[in-house]
Design goal:
heterodimer, A: alpha/beta, FAD/NAD(P)-binding domain, Enolase-like, domain 1, five-stranded parallel beta sheet, 38 strands, B: mainly beta, Rieske Iron-sulfur Protein, three-stranded antiparallel beta sheet, 35% strand
């Protein structure tokens, strides 16, 4: 034991606690509970007040609680337990040699055991203006008082940081009448606690409540006017005006005292399992410590640490082995819970349930039949159950099928099988809430011959609207028919039970405008889709909302992201557009120069009447495009699910058989249609006579010129399954041919499935239905007008944009390693 | 003093849901991924199937789909998922103070010939 000091306190050991916060006081409470007479206790607090519950500052800011409501230990508690509280006189130094602490006033207090519970400090981002009046953090009651004063004056507030603390500050300020903008560096709010889907739901809800949420927003500076904060400037150049700026980007352990006393400190004060530091007389607890490499910023681990610390101080050591943490957001009306690991780690599986009508998203992550993480939004009732399963590491294989439905359902003994649970429902139980269909009605419908999900949907309408009861209907099919269930319509991919047609229809009906929104509203079973559905959704949204939807590059296949065709060796091929297959010496010279300059190993004339340069490196693409642009050439979209080429023959200008100017028409059509994104690639050809030298009858849209006008052919394909075109109709003028071309393309764009060429599309829907639609002059006019509208937003040369520096990150390496010249990195 | 970890720049240089490339002179190019969640991983930039550049694939969850033949590769283990069999080496990575660090020996260990370092 330590050498006795020259202060006598009745023989009791002296316990000094630095920090009158939640950790310090809780540690004392735990010690008192075990052995109330063992220690003579002194607590130093930097704040001039008694101990209060810091995590309840948010409700104080929001006006839901008063300071008195959040006091944990009133002055009487200190007196009753014979604790000396020294508040407002912070400790400045620890003298380990003499085992004393020295306070700012000069007061010296000896200890036998010292507990450091200095907590954490808010992290201030080092930007110009960070020290201006009106810039506050959100850590203690003084901060809250400053925010309340600012809110009384009204005006605009910017909260930097969209984590737990920042969002709570934003919520409080918003309730107090300020116009609040949240600036968050990451693309998802609370990204450490939430996955993209839940983060999106949260953002939607906060925006609905009137906050402005800017994600992916990096603060450059805090702006000043008349010596006071005036706004925030973002790195993208945007300025946001502000009368109050709250910095809530994070916290860092407050280790200053420990460090200057020579106690071992890494990110936090290093402690063992008994919360003892490198000095055996000194313990540390709470947010200032680092235990087994981890620093905690939440309240639950603190309770566990304090128990271990008190057990040790009262000589019945148990040890702390780290905490699994969970999070809840304290914003009224928003239910949100997360715990454990939900990054989708190796071998883990996601069980996802979404209920759009109730705004619910649940995701439980399972590995080796154990729950390892959970994210719940909208309904957090099962959070504690999942957290319990997670902490105990219980084997959940018995309840796995019903796990996502919750404890009552999953633990219902015999009901753990979802089919059994459905079988146990009464006939009156409602299956489909959207259409008010009961279990009895669904069963009657199945017994009446609806042997598939699709048939049920079309007869009794169950599962035909939002689709959230699809699983229930499938269970009823299985129960009623035994093994005879016919497989339903083909779903878009394994992430959804909806078909392509359903998704396209619902995007319009429900006005869905972003990929995460589609995934939520349509109950996607994966957090962020897969390589099949992401590009499809991106296209469907682009087609549904021209000019409005912002293309999601990360949901594009590489060729469409890099505007070139990837080849087997990872290099790219580049095809400039040659309108109608025409070129000239200037273009050919530029192509020849580019081929040499960028080392194109192969130069090939394509089947679409243009020239392909092979072997170009990703990093060189913007430069070669700049060179080709300079000669007047633009992207040929040879890489896209888009209009590829318009192949032509020379036509009446040169050919002795030519009936019309097929080349000229081809050029006009290519100018009208280039740049349009389609479900799949789309090829056009114009032949000047029925000899058909441009091979128009194996194109998606083919024109054959005849003396009396133009025959329009559709749905041809020269690929794996050779298919000749069907005749669509015959028109008399070029204008009519072009109008019909636009209308046909738009019909295909709006109704085909993603990655479905026109040939299989027409086989699926029947040429007659296409003919009928396009026989209606009004319909043709509308379709062509919609096509022109969408073209207004798509005819920008993507090469020119990239050559001009847009999205340079897609082409440049992040860094390069050259070992022989390497600079030390640390 | 040469550190154990190689600083390759701020994490914000990689848009979530994408990857960027890190060429290594005399060695294998590395692909550095950032998932939609913001987690970072590094793999040799070669699909175990036909050496496709994984950095150019679509990232979903902690999986990348190779752009050449749609193999799905786990970013955490480098293993091919589903029925496909194969594995690409992973490079230990940590994020500290908003910057990405790769384990130096794993980056350099892939060089054709050992270098004096």
């Amino acid at each position: 034991m330590n050498a006795p000091q020259n202060f006598d306190r009745g023989g009791r050991e002296r316990l000094v606690v630095i920090g009158n916060g939640m950790a310090g006081c809780r540690a004392v409470e735990e010690v008192l509970a075990r052995d109330p007479d063992r220690y003579d206790i002194t607590i130093f607090g930097a704040e001039p007040r008694v101990n209060y519950n810091r995590i309840m500052l948010s409700p104080v800011l929001a006006g839901e609680k008063q300071f008195d409501d959040i006091v944990i230990n009133p002055p009487e508690w200190y007196a009753a337990n014979d604790i000396t509280l020294i508040s407002g006189d912070p400790v400045e130094r620890i003298d380990r040699e003499r085992q004393t602490v020295v306070a700012a006033s000069g007061r010296v207090e000896p200890y036998d055991r010292l507990i450091i519970a200095t907590g954490s400090d808010p992290f201030i981002i080092p930007v110009p203006g960070k020290d201006l009046p009106g810039v506050v953090t959100f850590r203690d009651l003084d901060d809250v008082n400053k925010m309340l004063a600012a809110a009384d004056a009204g005006g605009d507030a910017v909260v930097i940081g969209g984590g737990l603390l920042g969002l709570e500050a934003a919520h409080g300020l918003s309730l107090r009448g300020m116009k609040v903008t949240v600036v968050h560096l990451m693309p998802t709010l609370m990204e450490r606690q939430l996955d993209e889907a839940a983060g999106w739901l949260l953002k939607e809800e906060l925006e609905r409540r009137g906050q402005t949420i800017l994600t992916g927003a990096d603060t450059e500076a805090i702006l000043e006017r008349n010596g006071h904060v005036a706004g925030v400037r973002l790195k993208d150049g945007r300025d946001i005006s502000a009368d109050l700026v709250v910095m809530a980007v994070g916290i860092r352990p407050n280790t200053l005292l420990a460090k200057s006393a020579g106690v071992e400190v890494e990110r936090g004060i290093v402690v063992d399992d008994h919360m003892v530091t490198s000095d055996p007389a000194i313990l540390a607890v709470g947010e200032c410590v680092q235990h087994r490499g981890t620093c905690y910023g939440l309240v639950a681990p603190l309770w566990e640490m304090c128990r271990a610390l008190a057990d040790f101080l009262c000589e019945s050591p148990t040890g702390y082995s780290g905490s699994v943490t969970s999070t809840k957001l304290k914003v009224s009306g928003i239910d949100l819970f997360s715990a454990g690991d939900f990054s989708g780690s190796d071998g883990s599986e996601d069980i996802v349930m979404r209920d759009a009508s109730r705004g619910i998203y649940k995701r439980v992550v399972v590995r080796d039949n154990r729950v390892i993480g959970a994210v719940l939004y909208g309904d957090t009732g099962e959070g504690s159950w999942y957290f319990d399963l997670l902490k105990k590491g219980e084997d959940i294989s018995d309840v796995r099928e019903a796990l996502i439905f919750g404890q009552a359902f999953a633990m219902g003994g015999a009901l753990a099988d979802p089919n059994a649970a459905v079988a146990a429902l009464s006939d009156e139980a409602e299956i489909c809430g959207c259409n008010g269909v009961s279990k009895g009605q669904v069963v009657a419908c199945i017994e009446g011959g609806a042997y598939s999900l699709d048939a049920v949907r079309s007869t009794c309408k169950a599962s035909a609207s939002c689709g959230s009861c699809t699983g229930l209907v499938e269970s009823l099919l299985a129960l009623t028919l035994g093994a005879e269930v016919k497989s339903g319509p083909k779903t878009m991919c394994k992430c959804t039970s909806f078909t392509h047609d359903d998704v396209r229809r619902l995007i319009l009906e429900k006005q869905l405008r972003a990929i995460p929104q589609v995934m939520q509203e349509l109950h996607w079973t994966t957090p962020d889709g897969c390589a099949s559905c992401r590009p499809a959704l991106n296209y469907y949204l682009l087609c549904a909302w021209p000019g409005e939807y912002e293309d999601d590059q990360k949901s594009r296949f590489v060729n469409e992201r890099l505007h070139a065709n990837i080849q087997k060796d990872g290099t790219y091929s580049v095809v400039p557009r040659m309108w109608g297959g025409l070129t000239n010496p200037k273009e050919l010279r530029a192509i020849a120069d580019a081929a040499e300059k960028y080392g194109a190993r192969t130069v090939k004339v394509t089947g679409g009447q243009r020239i392909d340069l092979f072997g170009i490196h990703k990093e060189d693409l913007p430069a070669i495009w700049a060179d080709l642009n300079a000669a007047g050439m633009v992207s040929g979209h040879a890489y896209g699910k888009a209009l590829r080429t318009v192949k032509t023959c020379v036509g009446s200008e040169w050919c002795r058989f030519g009936t019309q100017d097929s080349t000229g028409l081809g050029v006009k059509i290519e100018h009208a249609t280039w740049g349009s994104w389609m479900p799949h690639k789309f090829k056009i050809a114009v032949s000047g006579c029925p000899r058909n030298c441009a091979e128009a009858t194996i194109k998606d849209f083919g024109i054959i010129c005849v003396d009396s006008g133009y025959e329009l052919h559709v749905g041809g394909n020269g690929g794996i399954h050779l298919r000749g075109t069907d005749l669509l109709c015959k028109v008399e003028t070029e204008e009519q041919a072009m109008e019909m071309c636009g209308a046909f393309i738009q019909l295909y764009r709006e109704e085909a499935h993603y990655l479905e060429r026109t040939a299989p599309w027409i086989e699926r829907v029947g040429i007659e239905s296409v003919r009928q639609r396009l026989a209606d002059a009004e319909e043709v006019r509308k379709l062509a007008a919609r096509f022109r509208l969408s073209q207004k937003y798509s005819q920008h040369d993507p090469w020119a944009e990239r050559a001009g520096g847009k999205r340079a990150d897609l082409h440049a390496h992040i860094a390069q390693v050259r070992p022989l010249q390497m600079e030390p990195a640390e | 003093m040469i550190g154990k970890w190689l600083d390759i720049g701020p994490v914000t240089q990689i848009e979530p849901g994408t990857a960027r490339t890190l060429p290594v002179e005399g060695g294998e190019e590395i692909a550095v991924f950032r998932t939609m969640n913001g987690d970072c991983y590094a793999l040799v930039n070669k699909c175990p199937h036909k050496q496709g550049p994984l950095s150019q694939g679509i990232v979903h969850g902690a999986v990348v789909t190779c752009p050449l033949h749609n193999w799905n590769i786990s970013l955490m283990t480098g293993e091919a998922l589903g029925d496909d069999k194969g594995c690409v080496p992973t490079i230990p990575l940590k994020v500290d103070g908003g910057r990405i660090f790769l384990l130096r020996e794993a980056v350099l260990g892939r060089q054709a010939a050992p270098q004096a370092a």
